[in-house]
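Renewal narrative, Specific Aim 1. Our central claim is that a sequence can be written position by position from structural information alone. The example that follows is taken directly from our test logs and has not been curated for this report. It begins with the structure tokens describing the chain, in the order in which they were read.
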């Protein structure tokens, strides 16, 4: 390591060295576990005797600042934490702003390995065992070779050209999205896409309309930008377009697999939504988060494919098709906002990490993504059928499924009054994770029901978990 020590003159050499080393350790500049240079090397670098170095190391070791490991060297010791009182957020000039962030509710946080339940119907998560590790490892090796051959400069804010081309080809084929490479912006998951679009489209007081019930992280994000979020009811055909208020600048929808209910927006409602947005001068955010998994009927094209006026910003993610930990998403932006969003992206993080971008570009180009989606589709279809069979069978006295044909979660409505907090608590006691849909409602009166994710629970675990759910429902009855 490189140690910064300055010796002035020839007086009290040991004292100078001692004071500088001790100060560096106490301030944290020399962190616990840092190895110090051997005494012979440091003596040569500073032009002082080796004995002076050794005596100083010995004194600091005696005072517990350093520790010696035989055969390895001298290391900075772990220091006890100082109990100096730190300034609280309430004492800062920005206390009100900080408090508003501290008070934001936490939604959809996935449990850690230690805190997870044996049977978990959590939404938005996939079975890690399905991830094609060997293919991804090979693509990552390719990515490392690409980076090794680069000049080491910052990359494109809008994403690597190779990945933008791969995404444009993939979604044109799988979702009917009408785009060119230059329309694609790569981002750190769909959440960053929502943040960037909101940054350039809203100011404090701007109206944002979104489905109610809907996706809470989107609603909270729009709110942190100062926007006034209006919840618009959802029926069997999707968002009720005629209830989108005048003055709305941004409309957030999940038309292919409404979150959380799962209904698909009808063709007539899609036409009406596009017309309403054009009248308002608003941009529609189409969050197409998991509709590549479709189980019934012909695939529905994206809302973006119907857009003739450049008012739909299409947002996609690889968190659902691959892994949430990758944090890779993308936007297909209309010309009116493309340049502004790229500028916002550049100011926010310069660009998304290029290592996963290179790997994903090769992964898609070689057909690995489509192969993975087909394999997972068969697995999720089996899980979905098993849940639907049980809901139509022994769980039918209490629950009914909301019609849904895509994704890897479904909603179950309560047919009779059920104490949902008690149900969730009792289920935890028998290692079953259940999630009510009530928190997803915003301004509408919530309905009782469950969001049943089947992406993360193994197929063979579904029946044992639903057996336990049935037994609890019988007890509550």
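The sequence written for that structure reads:
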């Amino acid at each position: 390591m490189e140690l910064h020590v300055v010796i002035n003159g020839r007086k009290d050499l040991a004292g100078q060295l001692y004071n500088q080393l001790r100060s560096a350790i106490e301030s944290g500049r020399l962190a616990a576990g840092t190895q110090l240079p051997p005494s012979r090397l440091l003596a040569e670098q500073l032009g002082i005797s080796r004995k002076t170095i050794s005596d100083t190391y010995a004194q600091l070791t005696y005072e517990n600042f350093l520790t010696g490991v035989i055969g390895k060297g001298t290391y900075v010791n772990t220091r006890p934490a100082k109990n100096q009182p730190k300034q609280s957020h309430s004492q800062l000039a920005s206390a009100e702003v900080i408090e508003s962030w501290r008070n934001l509710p936490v939604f959809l946080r996935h449990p850690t390995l230690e805190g997870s339940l044996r049977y978990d119907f959590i939404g938005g998560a996939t079975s890690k065992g399905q991830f094609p590790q060997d293919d991804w490892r090979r693509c990552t090796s390719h990515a490392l070779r690409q980076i090794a051959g680069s000049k080491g400069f910052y990359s494109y804010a809008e994403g690597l050209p190779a990945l933008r081309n791969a995404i444009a080809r993939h979604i044109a084929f799988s979702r009917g999205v009408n785009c060119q490479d230059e329309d694609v912006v790569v981002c750190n998951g769909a959440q960053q896409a929502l943040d960037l679009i909101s940054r350039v489209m809203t100011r404090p007081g701007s109206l944002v309309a979104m489905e109610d019930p809907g996706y809470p992280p989107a609603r909270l994000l729009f709110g942190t930008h100062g926007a006034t979020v209006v919840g618009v009811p959802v029926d069997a055909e999707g968002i009720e377009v005629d209830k989108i208020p005048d003055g709305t600048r941004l409309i957030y929808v999940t038309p292919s697999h409404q979150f959380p209910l799962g209904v698909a927006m009808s063709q007539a409602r899609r036409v009406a939504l596009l017309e309403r947005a054009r009248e308002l001068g608003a941009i529609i955010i189409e969050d197409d988060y998991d509709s590549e998994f479709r189980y019934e009927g012909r695939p529905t094209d994206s809302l973006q494919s119907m857009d003739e006026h450049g008012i739909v910003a299409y947002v996609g993610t690889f968190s659902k098709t691959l892994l949430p930990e990758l944090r890779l998403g993308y936007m297909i932006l209309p010309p009116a906002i493309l340049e502004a969003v790229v500028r916002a992206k550049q100011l926010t993080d310069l660009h998304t990490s290029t290592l996963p971008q290179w790997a994903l570009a090769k992964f898609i180009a070689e057909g690995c993504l489509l192969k993975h989606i087909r394999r997972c589709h068969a697995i999720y279809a089996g899980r979905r059928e098993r849940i639907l069979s049980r809901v139509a069978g022994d769980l039918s006295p209490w629950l009914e499924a909301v019609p849904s044909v895509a994704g890897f979660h479904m909603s179950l409505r309560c047919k009779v009054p059920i104490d949902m907090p008690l149900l969730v608590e009792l289920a935890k006691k028998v290692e079953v994770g259940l999630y009510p849909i009530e928190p997803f409602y915003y301004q509408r009166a919530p309905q009782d029901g469950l969001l049943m994710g089947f992406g993360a629970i193994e197929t063979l675990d579904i029946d044992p978990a639903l057996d336990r759910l049935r037994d609890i429902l019988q007890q509550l009855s």
